[in-house]
Write a structure and sequence with these properties.
Layout lengths: L10 H4 L16 E4 L4 E3 L2 H17 L6 H8 L8 H12 L14 H19 L9 H11 L2 H4 L3
Antiparallel strand pairs: 1-2
Helix pairs in contact: 2-6, 3-4, 4-5, 5-6
Length: 156
């Protein structure tokens, strides 16, 4: 049997950074390092946590609310991304329309679940179907809970 090395894993999986967040000036909570270009997190949950917080910033600061607007900012064509295909795949995986609104930090349970499935679909696009499965939805949920713990305790 051939030995599998971590080098063959997609970067987002190796770095526990499923949405491939680029390194910045300050460290994210749970970030242990970077690979020169992208953050490395201590766990997948912390990588998802950072993704939710960053996407919430897209909502609140940049007024990016729709699937298409969020993804065109996340993976713009100018960075050699196949952004249109990215949007189409996320919509296919989630059943959302490109103009569907994504409210990342929501008190409404259905909107929270929609945001969780949206991030899960983005992770599938970023890393490949073989590395992000239905079973990973629980890890994405834990990342959401770390990002927005007030929703879990019923606090406002």
């Amino acid at each position: 049997m051939k030995k599998t090395t971590t080098k063959k894993l997609p970067r987002g999986i190796r770095n526990k950074n499923p949405l491939n967040i680029r390194k910045g000036g300050k460290l994210w909570k749970g970030q242990v390092s970077h690979d020169g270009k992208f953050c490395i997190f201590e766990s997948m949950e912390m990588g998802y946590r950072a993704a939710f917080i960053l996407l919430n910033t897209y909502n609140q600061k940049y007024q990016r609310w729709t699937v298409i607007d969020i993804i065109y900012r996340w993976a713009p064509p100018k960075d050699h991304n196949h952004t249109k295909a990215y949007v189409e795949r996320v919509c296919q995986l989630t059943g959302l329309h490109p103009t569907s609104t994504i409210v990342v930090d929501s008190w409404i349970a259905e909107k929270r679940e929609e945001a969780i499935r949206f991030v899960w679909a983005m992770a599938k696009v970023e890393n490949g179907d073989a590395y992000v499965t239905e079973a990973d939805l629980e890890t994405v949920r834990r990342g959401y809970e770390l990002a927005f713990p007030k929703h879990n305790r019923g606090e406002r």
